[in-house]
From TrEMBL:
EC numbers: 2.1.1.222, 2.1.1.64
Catalytic activity, reaction form: a 3-(all-trans-polyprenyl)benzene-1,2-diol + S-adenosyl-L-methionine = a 2-methoxy-6-(all-trans-polyprenyl)phenol + S-adenosyl-L-homocysteine + H(+); a 3-demethylubiquinol + S-adenosyl-L-methionine = a ubiquinol + S-adenosyl-L-homocysteine + H(+)
Protein name: Ubiquinone biosynthesis O-methyltransferase
Family: Belongs to the methyltransferase superfamily. UbiG/COQ3 family.
Pfam families, sorted: Methyltransf_23
């Protein structure tokens, strides 16, 4: 059984043609990408590294990491989104990024201990078994390498901000983008990472001011958050 939800794949597939429109439903991803890119690069130093982006979608993060000098492979199971990513790479002239339609678990069996950096951003809350994705990421990173995750915490504040606020009131995201029961507490994600042998390095929250449209990283992990892990050398 593939660790993917067909409804989730269809949902993002239907929007695939709008992935690179910065004023589309993917506007928040375009806005937060510089923050997460700089945070990843500040810790892992992407230049010259072999990088895997799990759940790459239309390639916003994968493309930007390649522009930092990394050799990037983006993987996803959303066929339409991957085609958009491939087309953008050709049009934008980013030859150091490639894309494959393959499950993380399948690639982990095929290519263990392969990548200097593995990223999995805004994906775990969309799959049936997120802990399986964490295991796959830990398998694919080289000893001494970095693994980065980002997702949404599960608590009343996250429901208010990420679903009611972002999807229904502010309409930053299409209604139904997220399902509250699939949100993941930082403690849960940290436990899954430790169980795979990863060491937790640091955690950052991501906040948003709807009045100014500004996003920033902070110590508040109660809604959106990022986790950096390392595989012991």
């Amino acid at each position: 059984m593939t660790n993917a939800d067909p409804q989730e794949l269809a949902k993002f597939g239907d929007l695939a043609h709008r992935w690179w429109d910065p004023e589309s439903e993917f506007r928040p991803l375009h806005q937060i990408n510089p923050l997460r890119l700089d945070w990843i690069d500040g810790l892992a130093r992407l230049n010259g590294k072999r990088v895997l982006d799990v759940g790459c979608g239309g390639g916003i993060l994968a493309d930007s990491m390649s522009r930092k000098g990394a050799d990037v492979l983006g993987i996803d199971l959303a066929t339409k989104a991957l085609k958009v990513a491939q087309l953008h790479a050709m049009e934008a002239g980013t030859p150091s990024v490639r894309y494959r339609e393959v499950a993380a678990e399948a690639l982990a069996a095929e290519s263990p201990d392969t990548f200097d950096v593995v990223t999995c951003m805004e994906m775990l809350e969309h799959v049936p078994d997120p802990s399986s994705i964490v295991r796959a990421c830990a398998t694919m990173v080289k000893p001494g390498g970095w693994v980065f995750f980002s997702t949404i915490s599960r608590n009343p504040k996250a429901f208010l901000f990420a679903i009611l606020g972002a999807e229904y009131l502010l309409k930053l995201l299409p209604k139904g983008t997220h399902e509250y029961a699939r949100f993941i507490r930082p403690s849960e994600l940290a436990q899954w990472a430790r169980e795979t042998g990863l060491d937790l390095h640091s955690t950052r929250g991501m906040e948003h001011n709807p009045l100014t449209g500004r996003y920033w990283l902070s110590g508040d992990t109660s809604v959106n958050y990022l986790i950096a892990c390392r595989r012991p050398a």
